[in-house]
Amino acid sequence: MPEMDAAAQAAIDGAIASANAAEKAGNHADRAKHASTALELMKANFHPAAPTNPVDATGASARLTALEKDGAWCQKLFSGDGAAREEFDRLTKLIADTPDTERALAGASRTIFEYEAPASGAEASLRDQISFVNDARADDTPDEVSRMLLSPLRGNPKDRAFAQRQLDLIYRAYLKVPRASWPAEISRAAREYAAIASADIWP
Q: What is the four-CA torsion angle of 105, 108, 114, 116, rounded to 10 degrees?
């Protein structure tokens, strides 16, 4: 749960106090009004509005999550509107360029526009990684320790062979698709598998 600043906490406490005072006075209309104000203030603090011009994966994920509920924007996107497509591409690039480990530490969940392959057992899903980070923080585990534990382990021939097989599958599936048109998630996966499969990583 995010921490509130002093001003936000004071405003909520004031609305609650006013609601309690109205209840004691038997003024149910004012009690309901002040209680509603307190709830709206808490909602605004715990669920802040998504940024309109995000600069990282967390903000981009929040923005896409908000936009997916905007019927007018989705209609523009799927009808080929240039501005909507440009925003979508920028947001998905911000997300795709951020490793899952960093997204887990930032709490940036998958959006409806992303595809996550079924877990292979070699690496936890992003949802599981976010849950792990939250549990670790509750136990006062430093983020650097979580980052080390969640970072993909590279360096053995088995991982290299697995990565090469995944690359082969990607290239076969997208053989006739121009590289620039590949989905952002597929491009990111190809880059990661290529890094794992690279002979430069092994002595």
A: 30
Which among 195, 181, 185, 190 has a CA at the least distance from the CA of 61? Answer: 185
Measured distance CA(137)–CA(104) in Å, rounded:
12
- Which of 63, 36, 69, 70 shows the shortest CA–CA distance to 49? 63
Measured CA angle at 103 (ends 145, 117), to 5 deg: 110
- Single-letter amino acid, residue 1: M
CB 111 within 8 A of CB 139: no
Q: What is the dihedral of CA 133, 134, 138, 143, to 10 degrees?
A: 30
Instruction: Kindly compute the dihedral angle of the four CA atoms of residues 94, 100, 101, 107, in this order, to the nearest 10 degrees.
Output: 70
For residue 49, the SS3 value is coil
pLDDT tens figures, 145-195: 778 767 765 556 777 788 788 888 888 888 888 878 888 878 877 777 776
For residue 120 the two structure tokens come to 């292979």
CA 21 to chain centre: 41
Of 91, 93, 85, the closest CA to residue 59 belongs to 91
Judge if pTM exceeds 0.85.
Answer: no
Q: Is the pLDDT of residue 22 over 80?
A: yes
Match 């990111």 to its residue by tokens: 188
